[in-house]
What we know:
Blueprint: H1 3-13, E1 17-22, H2 24-28, H3 53-56, H4 59-64, H5 66-80, H6 87-95, E2 101-106, H7 112-115, E3 121-123, E4 126-133, E5 139-141, E6 161-165, H8 174-186, E7 190-194, H9 201-212, E8 217-220, E9 233-235, H10 239-248
Parallel strand pairs: 1-2, 1-7, 2-3, 7-8, 8-9
Antiparallel strand pairs: 4-5, 4-6
Helix pairs in contact: 6-10
Amino acid sequence: MDLALERVITHLSHARGVLFITGAGISAESGVPTYRGIGGLYNGKTTEDGLPIEVALSGSMFRRRPELTWKHLHDIERACRGATFNRAHEILARFEESFERCWVLTQNVDGFHRAAGSKHVIDIHGDIHALCCTQCPFTERVADYSHLEPCPSCPQCGALLRPEVVLFEEMLPTVQVETLQRELARGFDVVFSIGTSSLFPYIDGPVLEAIARKRPTVEINPGLTDLSDRVDVKLRMGAVAACEALWAARDRWMPRRG
């Protein structure tokens, strides 16, 4: 077996608490395009309206021209429609059974981790399938946007609906941030970064904190990132291949529990 994988197995064999941080790369293997975490529709390009996607999908634009923001939300959801979780998501869900504490911190808004069975998920950017009213307590969960109006309104009060996702310029959701802070304070024995470029401080922060505390860190990514030279182990492979390799070797680290 590859020496790097051997080192990861050794780290897992001594771990009780594990954090997996996931980004667009894990869902790309489900066929989801990767524009800044969702969809390669806009990478390096402006939208057909002549705006950078960061402007079209911003909180200020949603307040001024919600129909424009919704137009691009529909485009992104349509590009992802029909995709579902893959083997990597399934294996991370199974990892919850193998450790005393096992959490997933994901930037992805596709909901695949929960759909695959993970219960301890911090979806720091929200979930595109969860809709809420901008005025009243109404919420609903939708499988896709095929039945929605171009700029949907609340069936209870008639106000504007929006997905429970973090738009550009908006604050991160309080509950998710508090959960992340609580679990980081308890500490993790191994921290994984999977399929993410780690561009946000709350995404690379847990890895850097683990490095500072001399806790093992692992990056799973076929490409190089700013963390690649800093982590203990770099696996230059896709999420599915890496997770399958670790799961296939589970008899070498799971018996050491307890």
